[in-house]
Amino acid sequence: MNIRARHAIAAALCSAAMAIAAPLAAQDQAPKEPDNEIVVEGEIDVDRGDARDQTRDITPRPTSAQEPLARFNKEICPGVWGLAPENAQIVIDRIYDNAEKIGVPVNDAPDCGANVWVIVVDDPHETFKQLRDKNDFLVRGMGYWERERIEKQDGAALSWNLVSTRSRGGLEAVQGANSDAVNETTLMSRTNTAIRQDIELSVVLVRRSELATVDALTLADYATMRGLAKTEEPNESLAFDTVLGAFGPARDVTRLSVFDLSYLRALYRSSPTRDARLALTDVERLMEEEYARMEAERTEQR
């Protein structure tokens, strides 16, 4: 068995709360494996204002503009529950591949603990409610306003990230405590904060009936964009393609786009303590670099 397959079985999800999910869907409902290439399409000319506006639209507003954006600061390990093993394997491998393209460290050891979960259930909203009522590890520590934000999500998928506030060196901050974790003010600057926001666990719940209309790569790419960053589905008409709409009304983008890749690369190439105003300023430049790379590849193949 591929060592990346170890989270493709239901037994890996040891929480008793997950017993609320329905049995595995019939095999003919499960996503089928398509080609394994990320398809990136879009306009060659990138307007700085459009890139900035779209970046803001999909990024939840932080408590303070000086607060850093949430990201993984440790290796990721994907886990899948609710799919046939062969389809779960596709999703897991794709998330690993995406992370490596973006520059996110990965842990593919056989016994690594999953921290990016893709879970297929009959009713994501009902599942979230029951997880919350049981104070399951998948929601433990989530604040009131974050729960409210998740419950207001529409569509066939729900997603959230469990985030901890840490010092620049990685010590977990305890609000009000007199400790190094919250008193590194000497490290602050106009562009960097004394803290970072660490994603400890990400969860994407997807309605089982959607498996009839999406493939495994769409599921994995959507989970990549929701799991590796704290993002929201877009509220407005967009200038650039994004897989964040894969479970929305349009559903015309089914792969990570140039914008998606550039957004995640900008986040992970930035300092984890960079304040939110500046952390994603490179999205436009990275989009232009990606388009130039694609054009060079096309020219070489002619």
From TrEMBL:
Residues 41-67 are annotated as: Disordered. Residues 45-59 have a biased composition (Basic and acidic residues). This is DUF2927 domain-containing protein. It comes from the Bacteria. Keywords: Signal. It comes from Aurantiacibacter rhizosphaerae. Residues 1-26 form the signal peptide.
